[in-house]
TrEMBL record:
<feature type="transmembrane region" description="Helical">
    <location>
        <begin position="24"/>
        <end position="51"/>
    </location>
</feature>
<dbReference type="InterPro" id="IPR025588">
    <property type="entry name" value="YcxB-like_C"/>
</dbReference>
<dbReference type="Pfam" id="PF14317">
    <property type="entry name" value="YcxB"/>
</dbReference>
<feature type="domain" description="YcxB-like C-terminal">
    <location>
        <begin position="112"/>
        <end position="164"/>
    </location>
</feature>
<feature type="transmembrane region" description="Helical">
    <location>
        <begin position="57"/>
        <end position="79"/>
    </location>
</feature>
<keyword id="KW-0472">Membrane</keyword>
<protein>
    <recommendedName>
        <fullName>YcxB-like C-terminal domain-containing protein</fullName>
    </recommendedName>
</protein>
<keyword id="KW-1133">Transmembrane helix</keyword>
<keyword id="KW-0812">Transmembrane</keyword>
Length: 177
């Protein structure tokens, strides 16, 4: 049995998925560097308060850590928008076809210039899979995914694909609503 899904590169769906799944990473990218400046500043301030040079440096670390938070929140959407625009220009006419069999996932990518790239993934090489209301998500790693919208299935049905993934991934397959 084989199921086929043919989709284009949908930047909007990918952004929504990434924002939902990795929201904590954006918070971590802002908070952790700030804390790396603020906490040593506070520690040095209390431990070496009597030494004026250390006190000044501690206060500087705390101020820089605090200023880093709004700077990160301001620049993150700008970087995201620029990356989205770059991706839209580069991959606008890319067609991705997935064929899922009992043991493997075959990915055929047709680029704008007509170049065809084929990759074969055994289910044992993949991390996990999820079924959501409108799509299937196959995790190559924790950070790389294949989004298979149910509406883009061209051979087979979502139920057949769900059964195929459940058999292929076993306990690493989750059905979410």
């Amino acid at each position: 049995m084989s199921i086929k899904v043919k989709t284009g590169l949908n930047v909007g769906e990918m952004e929504t998925f990434m924002a939902e799944k990795y929201k904590i990473h954006l918070i971590g990218a802002v908070v952790i560097p700030s804390l790396c400046l603020i906490l040593p500043g506070i520690i040095f301030l209390f431990l070496f308060y009597n030494i004026s040079v250390v006190r000044r440096m501690s206060i500087l670390l705390i101020v820089l850590g605090i200023l880093l938070i709004p700077f990160s929140y301001i620049t993150a959407p700008i970087i995201q928008k620029n990356m989205r625009n770059l991706l839209m220009k580069k991959e606008n006419n890319t067609v991705i076809e997935y064929e899922l069999t009992e043991t493997e996932l075959i990915q055929n990518v047709t680029r704008q210039n007509g170049a065809l790239e084929t990759k074969v993934y055994k289910y044992s090489m993949l991390d996990s899979a999820e079924e959501k209301k409108n799509e299937f998500i196959i995790y190559v790693t924790k950070m790389q995914v294949f989004l298979l919208p149910k509406k883009d299935i061209i051979e087979g049905t979502p139920e057949e694909l769900s059964a195929l993934l459940r058999n292929g991934f076993g306990s690493k397959f989750k059905k979410l609503n």
